[in-house]
Amino acid sequence: MDIDEKVSGPGGASQKNWTHLNTTYDELPLDMRFNHGHLVSITVYSVLMMISAVGNLTVLSQLIKRRRMGRASRLDVLLMHLAIADLMVTFLMMPLEIAWARTVQWRAGDLMCRLMMFTRTFGLYLSSFVLICIAIDRYYAILKPLNVTWEARIRRALTVAWVCAALASLPQSFIFHLDEHPDVKEYFQCVSYGSLPTEQHEIAYFLVNMILMYVAPLVSTLYCSSAALLEIIRRANTANDKMRRSGVGILGRARARTLKMSVTIVLVFFTCWSPYYFYCLWYWIDKDSVKKLDPAIQKAMWLFSCTNSCANPIVYGVFNRNRWTWRSGHNTRCRNGLRRGSRFHHGDSMEISAATLARARCSIQSERNIRRDSAFGIQNGSQKHINNNNINGVV
Predict the structure, then answer these.
(1) What does the alpha-carbon distance between residue 215 and residue 30 come to, in Å, rounded to a whole number?
(2) This prediction's pTM
């Protein structure tokens, strides 16, 4: 290759090292001109863009409807932000990849080079950080369902996710810059070559990006899901469950389904991103063997990782297919707003709403007050009996 491509994507997005050429623009090698590989990239990105746009816009519209009607749960809010993150990838990163593959070289100037490299990774980081929020939310939903602290801090956690995504993407604006080919005049490329002083700095930057975007969501989900599954098993084997007595226990299966959905989303994330990151690690460990491979393999892995934005709305649709038909309450399957075989009004509500949680808290608080009053009444009765005995003894 006449342009030595390093690992592309977050932490190494389209890094290109120039090799000196004794040629003119009309005699450029195939890799520096529009070729069959660029055509394949444009086709695949276009298909992914359409699928992701339709899926995520559909999911987002359904979640917005539920929110306007006051039926949105915490998980709905989190999934709404996940859909927004995927739409950023769809409408910011994918069109950039299509346009860049069409022009081959960079023709938008230095400012757009830095700005687009920032937006190119912002949606990816945001998606990863929202997955962490979903993992924490499932932890509290199963282990501490009546915890008011996390419910009040969920929006703050999402704000932190947005801020962290911006901070994690910001270095891209400083690392990438516009550079002209040393031998081919008027041939510009958006590169990161020469921004970091040594190869050790490049490896460190890649590892930090890998931890933030790939490792952190997996570790957090693994821990939170394991703890939640153990709690579900413990409650299933416990006869005296306070949540079951308070009326919230009938939603236990719904909680289990939301846990399955969140775990499935992260498994899809792992499946889409693992080949790319394993390839990147292989590159930094043994460059010589990687350079012998076809460069199309790396591009294929990066394209495959982008399918994660298309898979998320499909997972949500599979686990929530009954929720989207709750308004068709006049069909034969519904009677008085209750689906046959379902304990929940308007279809299978996969998450406890705020109103249900409030009623559950009131129920538990009332039960505690009754027990306290009963105990207080027994104590007063005993004290009165003792006083009467004392009076009788004095008389």
Answers:
(1) 37
(2) 0.75
